[in-house]
């Protein structure tokens, strides 16, 4: 964990509500895909936890959705503006569990952390498949970025306006050695009901983002866990899903 | 005595800055970032007799210049705190620590304090009669002078350590509660705990917090806290630990000028993990700017 200043390189809209923010600054503490950073925004008391979409050298990519006043303020950030950011938060995905046919499953704004995961799996000699799920064609983002990595990619939309009609679970391959998922809770629950082993990244409202305030605790089979510090990635078998 | 040092109920602090309970865990996360021996002390996560998971999420909501929390006293229970957290703490904190205790009956407060009284690492017992986020305990003791006195007296009977009673601002007259605690034998009082508040998510028209209400903290509450500290300092003779929205060295000086012996820093640790370190480092220059030679002299004035 490190608290440092980043400089905005660019901030562009990918869809009506999803933006890509490129930042320059020290990324040394970001050690695993699936980790997040906590962004301090002028005029807002709490920081905004955002998953790491990509991280190469001293360039950090955050892809975020505008869901409230804080992220709307983020969307107005201009190049050269400076931001205080806590980096290297959370545990991240476990690459060692991938096996021969890892499957990456992202839904909506859960898609971004899977991009760095795909890159790292490829670098480790794995051949990941990717399923991205969205509500409708206008909300699809990062399809081209994933395609450029050369992964097997399927896109599903709930209304069928693009790709497979339905949910990510309607586009599952027959084989999967291990899945890595990030997305809305109903999607994560559905994915965990498949017979495949895997892990999911959870989202909670956070206070500190580094394990001090117990603001984001969940109950698991292994006792109370902090989503920010013990997670955000949890093994499927550790979770207590309430239906 | 150094320029920054103060005496809190017979124990010398190198400086008056104390991270507040619930905002510093058991110190581990912060000790990974800086040497927390630079602190005056810290008040560890509120401890109850039995383990508690606390409230469902969302437990946190943002407010203008602050935040609401409704964690609900999540902690592993006093036995595991003594068996696991205190021994672990010895590796990175080498000063007397403040043990924050909460309960749901007088008997629970007493038993938890009795167990912590045996721990040499514990310097003070901070008895929290003001948690707004649990039902049937916590704040209900802190809003009635007779109940506050009863807890204070019962706890005092089972410990040799100084007892600092943590007061709720959610009362008509906080000085009345403070006087009742003093008369019951409290060695000090700390204030303020959070102010009860809530927010509604307009997308769902429902409360943002799963617990509906939560405790407001952060710079938004500082003037309210300062006013209450001022009032209590003029109502009791025992030391007062001031807290509520402190974020800068100047805030510390204001609290001490109001009469506080020491201060606790809460929410600031959550938005800036280095907040207490920065405050301690900024204190000498801030004192120079306002012609303050020593902090103990500021309090006397």
Outline of this structure?
The complex is a heterodimer of chains A (243) and B (301). With 243 residues, chain A is mainly beta.
Describe it:
The complex is a heterodimer of chains A (243) and B (301). Chain A has 243 residues and is mainly beta. Chain A has 2 domains: 2-89, Elongation Factor Tu (Ef-tu), domain 3, CATH 2.40.30; 95-200, Rossmann fold, CATH 3.40.50.80. In chain A, 14% of the residues lie in helices and 35% in strands. Chain A has 4 helices and 16 strands. In chain A, strand 9, helix 3 and strand 10 form a beta-alpha-beta unit. Helix content of chain B is 33%, strand content 19%. Chain B contains 11 helices and 15 strands. By secondary structure, chain B is α/β, with parallel strands linked by helices. Chain B starts with 5 loop residues before the first strand and ends with a helix. The model of chain B has no long low-confidence stretch (mean pLDDT 95). Chains A and B meet through strand 14 of A and helix 1, strand 4, strand 5 and helix 9 of B.
Largest interface: A-B, 26 and 35 residues
Full CATH superfamily name of chain B: Aldolase class I
> What is the CATH fold-level name of the largest domain in chain A?
Rossmann fold
Q: Return Rg of chain B in Å.
A: 18 Å
Labels describing this entry:
heterodimer, A: 243 residues, mainly beta, Elongation Factor Tu (Ef-tu), domain 3, Rossmann fold, 7-stranded antiparallel sheet, 7-stranded mixed sheet, 16 strands, 14% helix, globular, B: 301 residues, alpha/beta, TIM Barrel, 7-stranded parallel sheet, 11 helices
Secondary structure topology:
The complex is a heterodimer of chains A (243) and B (301).
Chain A: E1 2-13, E2 18-24, E3 36-40, E4 48-51, E5 54-56, E6 59-65, H1 69-75, E7 82-89, E8 102-107, H2 112-123, E9 129-134, H3 143-148, E10 152-157, E11 164-165, E12 178-182, H4 185-192, E13 198-201, E14 217-220, E15 223-226, E16 233-235
Parallel strand pairs in A: 8-9, 8-12, 9-10, 10-11, 12-13
Antiparallel strand pairs in A: 1-2, 1-7, 2-6, 3-4, 3-7, 5-6, 13-16, 14-15
Chain B: E1 6-8, E2 11-13, E3 17-19, H1 28-31, E4 60-63, E5 66-69, H2 78-89, E6 97-101, H3 106-117, E7 122-128, H4 139-142, H5 145-156, E8 163-166, H6 174-183, E9 188-191, E10 195-197, E11 200-201, E12 206-207, E13 214-217, H7 222-233, E14 240-243, H8 249-257, E15 262-265, H9 268-271, H10 275-289, H11 295-300
Parallel strand pairs in B: 3-15, 6-7, 7-8, 8-9, 9-14, 14-15
Antiparallel strand pairs in B: 1-2, 4-5, 5-13, 10-13, 11-12
């Amino acid at each position: 964990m490190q608290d440092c200043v980043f400089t905005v390189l660019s901030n562009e809209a990918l869809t009506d509500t999803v933006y890509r923010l490129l930042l320059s600054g020290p990324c040394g503490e970001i050690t695993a895909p699936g980790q997040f950073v906590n962004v301090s925004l002028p005029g807002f008391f709490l920081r905004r936890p955002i998953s790491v979409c990509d991280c190469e050298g001293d360039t950090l990519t955050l892809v975020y959705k505008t869901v409230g006043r804080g992220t709307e303020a983020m969307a107005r950030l201009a190049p050269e503006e400076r931001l205080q950011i806590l980096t290297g938060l959370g545990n991240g995905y476990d690459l060692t569990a991938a096996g021969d046919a890892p499957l990456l499953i992202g839904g909506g704004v859960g898609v971004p952390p899977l991009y760095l995961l795909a890159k790292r799996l490829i670098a480790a000699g794995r051949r990941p498949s990717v399923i991205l799920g969205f509500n409708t064609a206008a909300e699809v983002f990062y399809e081209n970025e994933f395609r450029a990595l050369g992964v097997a990619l399927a896109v599903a939309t709930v209304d069928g306006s693009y790709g497979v009609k339905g949910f990510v679970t309607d586009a599952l391959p027959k084989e999967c050695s291990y899945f890595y998922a990030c997305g809305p809770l109903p999607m994560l629950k559905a994915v965990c009901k498949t017979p495949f082993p895997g892990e999911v990244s959870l989202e909670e409202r956070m206070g500190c983002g580094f394990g001090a305030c117990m603001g984001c605790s969940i109950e698991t089979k292994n006792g109370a866990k902090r989503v920010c510090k013990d997670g955000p990635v949890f093994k499927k078998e550790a979770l207590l899903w309430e239906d | 005595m150094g320029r920054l040092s103060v005496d809190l109920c017979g124990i010398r602090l190198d400086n008056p800055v104390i991270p507040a309970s619930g905002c510093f865990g058991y110190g581990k996360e912060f000790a990974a970032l800086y040497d927390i021996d630079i602190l005056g002390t810290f008040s560890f996560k509120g401890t109850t007799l039995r383990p508690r998971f606390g409230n469902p999420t969302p437990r946190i909501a943002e407010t203008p210049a602050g935040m609401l929390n409704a964690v609900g006293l999540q902690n592993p229970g006093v036995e595991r705190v003594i068996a696991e957290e205190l021994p672990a703490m010895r590796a990175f904190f080498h000063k007397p620590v403040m043990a924050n205790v909460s309960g749901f009956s007088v008997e629970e407060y007493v038993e938890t304090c009795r167990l912590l009284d045996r721990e040499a690492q514990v310097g003070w017992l901070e008895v929290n009669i003001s948690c707004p986020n649990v039902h049937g305990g916590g704040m209900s003791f802190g809003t009635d002078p007779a109940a506050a006195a009863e807890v204070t007296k019962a706890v005092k009977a089972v410990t040799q350590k100084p007892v600092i009673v943590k007061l709720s601002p959610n009362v008509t007259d906080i000085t009345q509660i403070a006087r009742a605690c003093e008369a019951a034998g409290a060695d000090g009082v700390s204030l303020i705990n959070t102010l009860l508040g809530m927010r509604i998510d307009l997308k769902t028209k429902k409360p943002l917090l799963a617990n509906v209400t939560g405790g407001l903290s952060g710079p938004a509450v500082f003037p309210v806290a300062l006013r209450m500290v001022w009032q209590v300092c003029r109502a009791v003779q025992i030391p007062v630990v001031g807290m509520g929205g402190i974020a800068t060295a100047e805030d510390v000086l204001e609290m001490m000028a109001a009469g506080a012996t020491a201060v606790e820093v809460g929410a600031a640790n959550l938005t800036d993990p280095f907040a207490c370190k920065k405050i301690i480092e900024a204190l000498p220059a801030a004192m120079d700017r306002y012609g303050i030679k020593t902090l103990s002299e500021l309090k006397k004035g």
